[in-house]
Write a structure and sequence with these properties.
Layout lengths: L8 E2 L2 H11 L4 E4 L3 E4 L4 E4 H9 L15 E5 L3 H8 L4 E8 L5 E6 L5 E5 L12
Parallel strand pairs: 1-4, 5-8
Antiparallel strand pairs: 2-3, 3-4, 6-7, 7-8
Amino acid sequence: MRFINPIPFVSDIKRSRTFYETTLGLTIREDFGNFVLFEGGFAIHEGRTLERTIWRQELPSAGPYGRRNVLLYFEDDDVDAAFARIAPLVELIHPVERQEWGQRVFRFYDPDGHAVEVGEPQGPGAASTAV
């Protein structure tokens, strides 16, 4: 068994597709209307449709899909340039900060309130961005 990808539920697939494609710069691999798969394995699914698929019914609304219990993680070779490009367009959680493990990241919310983190690459072959 292997993990493939997370699929966050979104309330407005067109809005979220535009957000991830335009604001974050992700490339769409396939668009099925209510399900969008991006290069690298990240995907989004229109929530009400997925609720009917999984539970055979739409669930009563309990607020936004993003509930501060999942963090969507992305990497960018130039975290400072990514921050400058993305920060004016989102609700920031915090600007670029160095974490206890040495990585520099920033965090914000997507249109559904999912927490998103963008960090510099870590591990073998990662670009050095020491400050």
